[in-house]
Amino acid sequence: MSDKHILTLGAGPAGLAAAHELLHQNIRPIVFEQTDKVGGIARTETYKNYFFDIGGHRFFTKNDRVNKLWQEMMGPDFLKVGRMSRIYYKGRLFKYPLSIPNTLLNLGIFESALMMLSYLYSQIRPYPEEDTFDQWITNRFGRRLYETFFKTYTEKVWGISCNEIQAEWAAQRIKGLSLIAAVGNALLGIKKSKSLIDEFYYPVWGPGMMWQRFQETIEKKGGEVHLNTKAVGLNHKKGRIVSVAYRNGKEAGEMPVDHLISSIPITKLISLMNPEPPANVLNAARNLSYRAFIIVMLIIDQKHLFSDQWIYIHNPDVKVGRIQNFKNWSAAMVPDHSKSSIGMEYFCTEGDEIWTMPDRELIAIASRELAVLGLSDESKVLDSYVVRQPGAYPVYDSHYRDHLAVIKDYLSGFTNLQTIGRSGMHRYNNMDQSMHVGILAAQNILGADHNLWETNEEQEYLEEQEFTDATTDSGKALADTLSRMDKLAMATAVGSLTGIILFLATIWILLRGDGPAIQKMMLLNQYFMGYTVSIGGAFQILFYGFLCGFMSGWLFAYTRNLFLACHIYRIKKKNESLSLLDFFDNL
Ligand SMILES: Cc1cc2nc3c(=O)[nH]c(=O)nc-3n(C[C@H](O)[C@H](O)[C@H](O)COP(=O)(O)OP(=O)(O)OC[C@H]3O[C@@H](n4cnc5c(N)ncnc54)[C@H](O)[C@@H]3O)c2cc1C
Question: Hey, which of 274, 422, 456, 582 would you mutate to test ligand 1's pocket, going by the most ligand atoms within 8 Å of its Cβ?
């Protein structure tokens, strides 16, 4: 193995994937992790043998490399879970993604009618400009549906009013599928896109199990994972990181490095630089922000609460944003099956009222809100535990790109430093994307030339591309089938054919002089006035036949086009509701 000092900061999915890849390439990795466990935001916490995650982590990827790694690490301990999650609104649970019959049934006739009217109004009189999130959504779904199903939850997540959120952000989040892809999926069952997933993987004892297996593998093969070891300074000289100062409990040390891979928040990385970066870089880092997250885990003396893995809470009268039911992720998450353990999730900002609230108050609020929602009773709460997660969501405000550009430019001046991961790149990465970048960073050390800042966009593009490719052949056929039928051409063709057939039939029977056949043919004059089996009658029926055929052909083409339009409209609507699924899942 190479003796080079390749140090990775952070033992979340990104840092561990990088370290694992280095081992693969015969380089001994060293990982510093400030906390006492691996996994980062995707870790599993334990309280009295009740296991729970920071938010419920679904394992789903289109990246073959990452998928293979997951399967190898977990083997039979990787459960395939059928997804069930609903929206809670005003005492009712709505299917998610929203289904029209279920939504209308739950809302009742009056509210449904108002929602339809509001939708129609938004289609007739949309906002001329779509500057903000609320305008963007209202133009697509109507004001009432926006207020019912978008406003409250989004405001809980971001802590600001929806009319302060940029429309561009909504457009990014609700990408939707291309129509052809959705049609392909609906009709031909082509490979599902990420937005359509209804199944995911989950380790028997939660996501932390995956990262422990990574840690074990890395250590078994000679790598080092140092827990409770916090990087406190990055010493650099002439565009190279020369050493990393760290603290392990009371012990302080300094490790020389040949190469540094960092998955710690990029803002923290900047603050650790010694000598310190120029003022504009420090200022850019100060202006990047994160939303934080608190999970209040409640142990409930009740075997069954609800069947969902999680429920989105859209009621404005409670602070809780989402509720996890961990035994529905994996039965092993709860040691006593006569009990349930749930995670009441609160979105906040470090230092705000919720973040600074003492645990006992948070627990009291969570227990009360559970009862207010009618999901259980306060008296059934047996025990509880609170976990605060800083830096959970990188905030995409209107200036973040500019600030990030300043930081990226500064970091590009270092030849032996790479930043990876979610907070490490200030990106809305999922686990698989974080790992993918980690793997590429490790490969760069061995001479590859991946541009890490472009990889996710590239990966997303590839995923889209792969999906589009899968639908291309069938897509072409579909596109042909789906193209509108020319009514005039269809009418002329059917008219001409009918007229000519009747004309030839009349001439044929006339020439044969077949009495009974002539009698039968004469019956046509009940419909075609003045028709006789004669030369004149043949021309007469040529005209009549053309006319009837023309009308039938036109009607057929019209009906077919109408049916097709309805079908496409239905698929489009389904597509939009599927993108709702993606929308909340990515908040
Ligand atoms: C509520 C919620 C739900 C989510 N659900 C899903 C999901 O269902 N599926 C999915 O794929 N993804 C999900 N994610 C995203 C997922 O958690 C992240 O993509 C993933 O954890 C990012 O991994 P990472 O290694 O980049 O960063 P992190 O997980 O943040 O790891 C960074 C590590 O660096 C350590 N560190 C920080 N500072 C220092 C320092 N100075 N010295 C040493 N170590 C340090 C931290 O302690 C941490 O362990 C969710 C995220 C949230 C917030």
Answer: 422
